[in-house]
Amino acid sequence: MPGEWYQTLEKPSFQPPPWLFGPVWTTLYVLIAIAGARTWLAAPASGRMQVWFGQMALNFLWSPAFFGAESPVLGLVVIAPLLVAIILFIRMSWSPDRVSAWLFLPYLAWVGFATLLNLSIVLLN
Q: Is 97 helix (H, G, I), strand (E, B) or coil?
């Protein structure tokens, strides 16, 4: 749970309800895992696989940066390269494994939205 600190922040009107995050992330992690498994089986030492691992590291760093450090600015510093890594994975996967690229499109949409949400929180606070 985000905690008291998060409750005190001004949030934009388009902030989703808290119950939505769990189901969305569960679905996204399944899609991310399938794309990662497909990439690992096809090309475990590829640049695509390195980008996949990089985006996972950034994904896992965001919560400690934003919530742990109580820093929306630090969260933005993490989420911006995460968004770039997701786009890069899609681009690198498009020709060799279109399915993996498609599996990352909902992730791109959600992280794009999350980036806008994070930026809005920075600007409002």
A: coil
